[in-house]
Amino acid sequence: MEGGSVEDDAWYLDMEDRLDKPLAETEQARWMARCIYRVPACVKDIKSKAYTPQVVSLGPFHHGDPDLLSMEEHKLRAVRHVVRRAGITARGLVAAVGEVAEHLECSYMDLGGEGRGPRTWGRRSFVQMMVADGCFLLEVMRTDAGNQVGDYAPNDPIFSGHGLLYTGPNIRRDMLMIENQLPLLLLKTITTVEGGNSSSDAFINSMVLRFLSQCSPTPPTEGGLCLHPLDALRRSMLFRPYHVAYRNRNHKDAQKSDIIGSARELYEAGIHFKKSNTNCLDDISFVHGVLSLPQVSMHDSIEVMLLNMMAFERLHVGAGHGVTAYVAFLYNIIDKVSDVALLRSKGIIQSAIGSDKAMAILFNRISRDTVIEPGSALDAVQREVSGYYRNNCRRVLNGWWINLVDKYFQNPWTIISLLAAVVLVTLAVLQTVYTMLSFYEHQDN
């Protein structure tokens, strides 16, 4: 049939218009600034609540959610306190954030430029939201650090010691979600307008880490200002820069990592476990039969933290795979409750979330679709462990010895009983030999 319908022509013209766009250079520039993402449905299937804020929205993705609206009035109160304390005007603060608004918009997936997503943001409303969210987050972190004594009422529901005692853990949890991030450029811009010496990259990074972590993490020393709070925490938990950790990624023989036994099986094969020198998640090594693993504290938010860090590594090109590889490695060696118990006995796992069974279930749940990148440093460790484990002669001998130690040398009373049994058996054997010798000597006479 010649020709086409009007609808066909309209479709063709629309497609031509869509395709008539710059390609590589424009796309690369557009994606380079992006660092805050919506989590795909296939990833959320693991546990959707782990990616959804419960108390406060930070940024545009969850702004306006009915369950989070109660915090909006506290955001406006935070703006008023910041403005009055610094002796600046709200107009000046909004203008300063407006100067970096384009960069902030581009930080969010499908928000800046074309393809703004399900909600269309005008520049004015976006800047107002950024100012309110940024001031709120700064005031929460300052209050937690004890830097706002007397500035808020002692019975303030949020910005007081009592308020943060109950809301602080929930706010921390919401700050871990990749969909609920604020660019740290926003916090730096606001503190710069306030004046003082609290607007350096290192100060902003450290302030965020002090609030998010309860174990005094080491602030990142490379790369300047972190992208957002989740990025700051993730970078503080990794030991090796990406280009060093993945030094063998182009190795021609890099294939899928060898499968290794569970922690208990490795232990029975003669592999010993000990804590690494640091708590960095990628500080894993295997030397002379000793597998060193970082100590990790299993707290209430550990699942949310790890899932969102893995989502960030999956979506952000160039972030590396340090956290994902760590979870994949632990999944390989944690199969049963006895594996968790072994790692806990060696001080590698510290639990505040329940039983060993709960931890085993947690790691098996969150490790879905996780992989160790072929040719990476951790892949090399796994291959070395696998080769050691496959040595059957060593495994049988060491397994016998370790079972003996576990059964008889863990309790002083069992040690005493075993020694007594050995002595009795030895005396019985000696008596038998002596009797036989006496018998044959009598026969000879």
From TrEMBL:
InterPro entries: DUF247_pln (IPR004158)
Record's keyword terms, sorted: Membrane, Transmembrane, Transmembrane helix
Transmembrane feature ranges: 413-437
Official protein name in the record: Uncharacterized protein
Organism name: Lolium multiflorum (Italian ryegrass)
